[in-house]
Amino acid sequence: TDVLIPGMNGQELADNLRLHHPDMRVLFMSGYDDREIDRENVEGGDTGFLPKPFSTEVLRRKVRGVLNGAR
To answer: What does the DSSP assignment read for the chain?
Structure first.
C-alpha cells in the first residue's frame, strides 16, 4: 500500500486489514519524502517501507525481506 491514500492513510488500511488477517505482513511504498512520512510509525514489526522510485530488483529484495521478517 502507499503510505498516503485518499480517505485514510496506509497505516490505517494495514491496521484494518490486520483485524481480519493478524499475520499479514505489509510493505509501504511512497514517493513522498521523509518529511511527509512518519517512518518510525510506518516501519516496525512485520512492516517495511520502500521509497519510490525503485527497481524491480530492489522491490524483490524488500518483499523477500518483509516476508522473512526483516524491515
So the answer is: -BSEETTEEHHHHHHHHHHH-TT--EEEEESS-GGGS-HHHHSBTTEEEEESS--HHHHHHHHHHHHTT--
- The domain containing residue 12 runs over which residues? 4-67
d(CA 54, CA 20): 30
Q: What is the pTM of this model?
A: 0.67
24-63: per-residue pLDDT in tens? 888 888 887 655 555 545 545 556 888 889 999 999 999 9
**Which helix (H) or strand (E) element contains residue 9?**
strand 8-9
Number of domains in the chain: 1
